[in-house]
Amino acid sequence: MGRRHQSMAAIPSAGASLQFDYIIIGAGTAGALLANRLSRNAANRVLLIEAGRRDDYHWIHIPVGYLYCIGNPRTDWLFNTQPDPGLNGRTLRYPRGKTLGGGSSINGMIYMRGQARDYAQWAHLTGDDSWRWTQVLQQFRAHESHYRLDAGAAGFETAEQFQAFAALHGGGTHSDAQQGREWRVEKQRLQWPILNAFAQACVEAGIPATEDFNSGNNEGVSYFEVNQRSGWRWNTAKAFLRPIQNRKNLTIWTQSQVQRLIMQKQSNGTWRCMGAQVNQQGQSLTVHAHREVVLSAGSIGSPHILQLSGIGAGALLHDKGVEPLIELPGVGGNLQDHLQIRSVYTIHGTPTLNTRANSLWGKAMIGLEYAFKRTGPMSMAPSQLGVFTRSSPSYSAANIQYHVQPLSLDAFGQPLHRFDAFTASVCNLNPTSRGHVQLQSPVFTDAPAIAPNYLSTPEDRQVAADSLRTTRRIVAQPALSAFGPQEYKPGVQYQSDEELTRLAGDIATTIFHPVGTCKMGRSDDALAVVDSQMRVFDGQGARVQGLRVVDASIMPTITSGNTNSPTLMIAEKAAQAILESAKIGN
């Protein structure tokens, strides 16, 4: 990234004050794009603050390296959930990216926008039609570089097919980064016979094949498209920060953790965010923003920083030793996440990664294939085949998602099984359960309490039971019969709703999609934290001046699929709003 972006480059002495126009807290998915967009104008002095280190750890960039990034203090915050009643008292590891690129440096690389109905709901909840699918589509396309458009119309059978695809997607030039299309989307560089058979079984079960999960209706089965370039992970640090590393008006601090926001009450009784207090390896700095502070620390970090700054539920803050300044009871509430239930089936007659990777020879061949071709298992996203369908006919759209893998293990981080098997993990796309994130003390380095409250509603428990039955129905189709699939986990002995729900609590785990903890809403929504332009409410029906939250935490409801790409769309939309606000002097 260049010397001026090193964590200790040009850092002043303790107690000094630094002045910027914009301060962005968090250099993850949203923060990296925001830094790119806000610093385009050389007159804007932009500071980007990241608590983690640079993304120079080699396992970040090799796709299979997520195995070595999650649970690693080099790249992960190492959060854990509170004991969860819906999981029969279990706690879960709760990975959050702690490096340039944030979650995009350790996630599953799956490019997924969600469904048009998600954004219709956002528009309804905020009273702002600019959040509808037809409107946000331009923000998705603004930064997308889709491989299918690389060759223009030549890559399609007809001009009509090209035009229809290009209306939904961005790309199609040899200088996409210069055109603002930095977010690379490619097809995966491998296929597995067992996954092809599973896809055919889905079709036999009435689930249509699809060529595009990102048209607004993702119902169907297909291999996922991924954020990779030529077999390497493509994170937001590469996409949005590396091309602009020489901009003199952009300063990036790493290994710098925000302690709190600097809040000041104005003479007219309104609040303004003046900047932030930052700890950099034990050195405390105060930085000031002339225009805005943008909080992009994610669905765990953003509400935690607000609470540390006196913004949140007053009784909670007082109880934890923080002086309440702004009463916003919704801060840290409304936590939503996708909980996946993993079914494992043993098979025979075709190899899976279990047996390919369980010998020194197999591992050597996998390594050589990646070294010379950038293909094979080392180029794999954590999940390869995707399925979106309905857990029961009562749903009008796909309400469950599968991540299907040609491998199996007892738990994430455990060794692969020594027999051939595949895993079909299914999640409820639109859970009704709601959890929370709450600070535990006024000490900024103390992790907050994370309580997702999974499976806490009858609706979610029913979907859990029905989704396991849907898995069994797919596996029972003729396309898979040649491989003799046998249910290894959870086990055919579990049949009733009660048994399957209890079982889900025993084996389900997070897919790492927390959202909603600084929810966007109308001014009359008592639990809304930001308005439709992501400006923080002041608890009195007005807005805190100079403060926005821009990340997945502002989603009022979770999207119907993986959440990384919707977060980029949110950041693109916010950048436009911030720059427009500066033009008109707001």
UniProtKB/TrEMBL annotation:
InterPro entries: FAD/NAD-bd_sf, GMC_OxRdtase, GMC_OxRdtase_N, GMC_OxRtase_C. PROSITE patterns: GMC_OXRED_1 (PS00623), GMC_OXRED_2 (PS00624). Its cofactor is FAD. Residues 97-120, 298-312 form the Glucose-methanol-choline oxidoreductase N-terminal domain. Keywords: FAD, Flavoprotein. GO terms for molecular function: flavin adenine dinucleotide binding; oxidoreductase activity, acting on CH-OH group of donors. The keyword Ribonucleoprotein does not apply. FAD binds at V258. Transmembrane segments: none annotated. Belongs to the GMC oxidoreductase family. This is FAD-binding protein. It comes from Lampropedia puyangensis.
